[in-house]
Amino acid sequence: MDKKSILIGQTILYNSSPFKVAIEDAFEYSSRGGILIENGVITALGEASEIVASHPDADLHDYSRCLLLPGFVDPHVHYPQTAIIASWGERLLDWLNNYTFPEEIRFGDPAYAAGIAERYLRLVLSNGTTTVCTFCTTHPASVDAFFEVADALDLRAVAGKVCMDRNAPDELRDSAAGGSDDSRMLLEKWHGRGRLSYAITPRFALTSSRAQLEALGDLCRSYPDCLMQTHIAEQPEEVAEVARLFPDSSDYLDVYESTGLLRPNGLYGHAIYLSPRESGRLRETGAALIHCPTSNTFIGSGLFGLRERAGEGHRLGLATDTGGGSSFSMLRTMAAAYEIGQLRGSSIHPGQLVWLSTQGNAQLLNMDGCIGSLRVGNEADIVVLDLASTPAIAQRASRAEEIWEELFPTIMMGDDRAVRSVWIHGKEVLGEGKSWTPRRE
Questions:
Q1: pLDDT under 50: residue ranges of the chain
Q2: CA-to-CA distance for 272 and 301, rounded, in angstroms?
């Protein structure tokens, strides 16, 4: 049996979505809380003095004024784009042709895929992200490589083979039947193994024929507990091209709906340029819209209306979209979402941003019962944030009168220096005396 561990620090425990109730009613805060971990699971929460007194045999990890949060959850990423992050000067379709597709061709080499998978996961873990949902490439080996590294690190993670049978280089195209068959094989190999889950993954309507989308819709019906991830309405020229390629569909979403790919377990990245009909159907279905703020600004896509979509009752997520997104950090992603909200005339509260990055995103991945919250019975994936990690942050946080004011400078200016420790399934994997250096080819 593993040794008991007690983590001590400031704690925030959400009891409701801060988009549905007033922020002050959505959480419980302790300036010196305690988290008891046994066998990888949170078994008690409360004031530190009470937890320590009740478990005198536990190892103590006192993080003082640091903030203990669930590990960040990132529901829309492209791990194969790790090496091309921050590539200059392109919009979406040019980005794919000039950067993404040439890089993804390299993932036909299993050794290359394994090296990037390890590099990516160690980079995001150093930024406090403990669960991701990633697009792979069309190569089954790219899925195997990611899952093998994630499994070795004991991560809860989601991935899927991208399916593309047109409008892509020959080296990356599969076929309608081949893409579905590969996806089924990988799903049966990895889904539910350890802490891993599979997501059925048509890249987007531009790169799949109707026949391929229909085959993947059939696969979704055969495996209703699996997630489905794709993109929708990211840029105007993309929307126009989808209309040209699918003249029998009434709009972009109808392409997915008519092929069986509109579903409650669906994750739809970007969703900036939705018509009222599309927005209504996505909301009625219970599908998730994933906001990717650093990507939307970096590639020049547009400004997603987070506050407006929340008010309409959509299920929402917040993601880095690495590598169209320009950061591996959920802190930077929260900051970008705040800035876009300001440009749209709606201020997003830091408590809402943190909830999206933890419990809200976990809900979209159907994992709220095991991660995303500091809750008894949940797996102990935890990030410890130093709220005074740099002189600039420290001098602002020192003036704070409540926890959100103390945390907000770290959201806006923090980076991996703010991540003091990371716990995965009850084990400290990043902290004092523990450092990771991504493997270099």
A1: 437-441
A2: 8
